[in-house]
């Protein structure tokens, strides 16, 4: 297959150094330079901006994310055809697999990531997404709210006691979720619906990051911002009200919300625990979040990363 490349990539855990090596090979494969690359983000994926080419390169952590990369490409095409403001693909045959790492290429959006002033735009875009007719050329996967969570826990460099606590909590939440009676109709969902998964360009907000798109309950998308408000303290009451008014619904009024809140807390914590070796700041933030879940209260405000 032309989209599978074996290259000289270092062994070891996924890191900014390893991702840079993958980037070099991937860029050469499609014929663009990467010497001007700038690391934008290291999380579930590594994102690099190549200014001269006007491209953003997205590198996933392992080969088992290949299906996600294929889905992201399909979702972008569907959203463009549906008129939903969202990130668009760079015009190459993709995704490609570089030594086991799925890679996709995106048009650079000349703007900024969403911030606290854009919470209303997030609500409006989620409403538009949830009201958009489902794709007809491919099928979105069923919603799996804990996808990758257990693997993050098992592979992260954190104490075994933390791993046992988190895995036990995941098991408890799976049982609680199975007993929920959702109020809203299933629809296409973003799956990682926070304000930093917006880009704002020329005053217009666009959705980005399609890795967790699925068909399922829209309450999960709404509960992300609600958890950031109630658990992490990242929103004021007025800002959260703006989000609810933009969407037309407040998920915290539903009696099942607390289960969704606890689930998002564990997802947010396991996301950051993947990078505890990247910096002292990340390690300290992980310690704050795990303590919050152990005690049930946030003695130190959570910091966004």
How does this model look, in words?
- The protein folds into 2 domains: 4-108, 2-Layer Sandwich (Phosphorylase Kinase, domain 1); 116-295, Aminoglycoside 3'-phosphotransferase, Chain: A, domain 2.
- It contains 9 helices and 11 strands.
- The chain has helices spanning 16-30, 66-82, 119-131, 149-155, 160-178, 219-232, 237-247, 257-273, 280-295, and strands spanning 4-5, 38-42, 45-50, 55-60, 96-98, 101-107, 112-113, 187-189, 198-201, 204-207, 214-216.
- The chain has a 6-stranded mixed β-sheet. The chain has a 3-stranded antiparallel β-sheet with strand order 7-9-10, with helices on one face.
- A hairpin with a 2-residue loop joins strand 9 and strand 10.
CATH level-4 homologous superfamily of the largest domain: Aminoglycoside phosphotransferase (APH), C-terminal lobe
What low-confidence regions span 5 or more consecutive residues with pLDDT below 50?
none
Percent range for β-strand residues: 5-15%
- What is the radius of gyration? 19 Å
**Overall geometric form:** globular
The CATH architecture of the largest domain would be: Alpha-Beta Complex
Distance, first to last CA: 37 Å
CATH class of the largest domain: Alpha Beta
What's the quaternary structure here?
single chain
Main β-sheet: number of strands, strand sense, barrel status?
6 strands, mixed
Mean pLDDT: 94
Number of helices: 9
For the secondary structure, the number of strands is 11
Total discrete domains: 2
Please provide the ordered H/E string of secondary-structure elements: EHEEEHEEEHHHEEEEHHHH
In the sheet with the most strands, the strands line up as 1-5-6-4-3-2
Which percent range fits the helix content? Answer: 40-55%
Summing up helix and strand content along with how strands pair, one would put the structural category as: alpha+beta
CATH topology of the largest domain: Aminoglycoside 3'-phosphotransferase, Chain: A, domain 2
């Amino acid at each position: 297959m032309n989209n599978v490349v074996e290259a000289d990539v270092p062994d070891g855990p996924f890191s900014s150094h390893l991702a840079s090596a993958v980037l070099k090979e991937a860029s050469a494969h499609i014929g663009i330079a990467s010497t001007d690359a700038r690391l934008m983000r290291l999380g579930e994926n590594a994102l690099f901006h190549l200014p001269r080419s006007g491209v953003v390169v997205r590198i996933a952590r392992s080969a088992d994310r290949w299906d996600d990369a294929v889905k992201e490409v399909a979702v972008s095409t569907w959203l463009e055809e549906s008129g939903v403001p969202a990130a668009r693909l760079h015009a190459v045959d993709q995704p490609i697999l570089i030594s086991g790492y799925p890679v996709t290429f995106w048009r650079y959006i000349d703007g900024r990531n969403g911030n606290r002033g854009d919470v209303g735009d997030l609500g409006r875009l989620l409403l538009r997404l949830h009201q958009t007719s489902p794709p007809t050329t491919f099928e979105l996967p069923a919603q799996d709210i804990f996808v990758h969570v257990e693997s993050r826990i098992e592979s992260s460099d954190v104490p075994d006691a933390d791993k046992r606590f988190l895995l036990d909590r995941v098991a408890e939440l799976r049982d609680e979720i199975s007993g929920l009676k959702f109020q809203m109709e299933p629809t296409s969902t973003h799956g990682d619906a926070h304000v930093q998964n917006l880009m704002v360009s020329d005053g217009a907000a666009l959705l980005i990051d399609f890795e967790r798109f699925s068909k399922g309950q829209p309450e999960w998308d709404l509960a992300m911002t609600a958890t950031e408000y109630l658990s992490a303290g990242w929103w004021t009451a007025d800002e959260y009200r703006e989000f609810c008014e933009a969407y037309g619904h407040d998920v915290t009024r539903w009696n099942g919300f607390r289960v969704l809140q606890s689930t998002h807390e564990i997802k947010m914590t396991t996301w950051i625990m993947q990078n505890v070796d990247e910096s002292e700041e990340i390690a300290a933030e992980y310690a704050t979040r795990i303590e919050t879940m152990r005690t049930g209260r946030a003695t130190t405000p959570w910091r966004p990363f």
